[in-house]
Structures are given as structure tokens and as C-alpha cells.
Amino acid sequence: MHYTKEIINQFVTESREYLESIEDDLLNLEKTRSNPDPSLVNKVFRVHHTIKEGAGFLELKNITDLALVMENIFSMMRAGEIKPVPVIIDALREGAGCLNILLNDVERSNEMDISGIYKQLLNLLSGNVSQQVKKELDTNVALSGLQGEDIGFEINAFTWKNLQAEGKFLYVLKYDLMELARSENRRPLQLIRQLLGSGDIIEGRLETTVEDLRTGLSREPLLYEVLYPIP
Question: What domains appear along the chain, each with residue ranges and CATH number?
């Protein structure tokens, strides 16, 4: 899928601002590593969650993959599985620097080599969680609808367990992005921001026959389905 330059530039600008906003937060987490502030952990988690969702929608694979592994580390911090010790914070700061490099040349970002920092972060993630959590992260749960029908989404057992513990129900929200843009002048990244403003997007998928949006909106539907938790 190819998107207009306006949409991509909007994502790049916002992502840079998000990353800049948490530079000091990472250092503060390290200083309070024995008892990190949950609101601060949640803030940096949501920054990477937002970047991951936007990059995933725009099919920016390297940015998506790197933001995802960083998001997972912060998710483990939220769950108390990982502490923001210096070696982890240093790697996360290096990851943020790599994200900025990718954003600075976003059109060629999928061709860049991120294997070094990606593997480093992945090893820190797997090496700092319990065997039980590792097993849960590696176990997928196929989700079904109220009538037992397959809805085409899977999540890992760790996420599923925590959603249940929080008393949240999962819904599949469906949007025709073309219709939203035409009738409400609401762009895809605006929709993603609005959804993330009140919750987390667990998974998202795009269904369309359209391949190129560089010249503007198509008359064909652009269906975006989101797995969204609601209390």
C-alpha cells in the first residue's frame, strides 16, 4: 500500500514529538528503578504503542518491529516483570535513537538494518522475564465471537490473562476509512490517535483492494478492523 506524502509526514512529525517528549522520562525511570512511577511507565509505553500502531498501518515494517519490542519491554515494566535498570534503559535510549534515524529517512526505512539493536532489545526482554511469562508470550489464543465463530484475531496468552484480570471485554471495531475521510474529514492517523486516547489497540488489520493512495482518496472501501478492549 502506498500512502500520500501528507499522511506519512504527519506520522513522522508526531512520532518525533512523542520520542522527544519522553527523553527525560527514561532517565527518571532509571533513577527510580527500585520503585518506578506507574504513570511514567504507562506514558512511555503509550508513546511506543502509538508509534507502533501508526507505523503498522503505514506498513513501515522496521519502525513497527522496533517500536513493538520496545513497547513489550515497557509492558513488562507495567506488569512488574522488568525493572528499568541501566542496561535496559541504555538499550531503550539506543532504540529511540534508531527510531529517529528511521523516521529521518522514512521512505527507505524498510531497507535499513536494525538487526543489532532489535536483537539486543529482544534478548533483554527474553532474559528478564520469568519462564511462565515467556511461555505465555509464546502461546497464542485464537479469539472467537459470541456464537463461537472465528473472528480472525489471535493474541498471546499473557495479554489475554491481563485483559481478563482487568475485567475488560474485547470488541472488533470496524471502520471504512474512505467514508470517514469523505464524510467527517477524519484521516486514518486521527482515528488511531482517538482510539489510543481512551484505550489500547490490541491488534489492527486493513482490508482493501486499493494499492495506491498517493493520488488521494479512492472510491473503493478501505476497511480497518481493530481489536479493542473496553471495561
Answer: 5-129 (1.20.120.160), 136-230 (no CATH)
Q: What pLDDT shows up at residue 205? A: 87
pTM for this model (two decimals): 0.88
CB contact at 8 A, 61 and 111: no
3-state DSSP assignment of residue 88: helix
Tell me the CA distances in angstroms from 18 to 38, 67, 100, 103, 164, one per residue in order: 18, 12, 11, 12, 30
pLDDT at 50 over 90: yes
Cell numbers standing for residue 168:
475488560
- pLDDT above 90 (res 215): no
Model confidence at 149: pLDDT above 60:
yes
- What is the mean predicted confidence (pLDDT) over 13-26? 94
Residues 120-127: contacts with CB under 8 Å, at least 24 apart: 120/91, 120/94, 121/66, 121/69, 121/70, 121/73, 121/91, 121/92, 121/95, 122/69, 124/73, 124/87, 124/88, 124/91, 125/69, 125/72, 125/73, 125/76, 125/82
Q: What is the pLDDT of residue 39?
A: 94
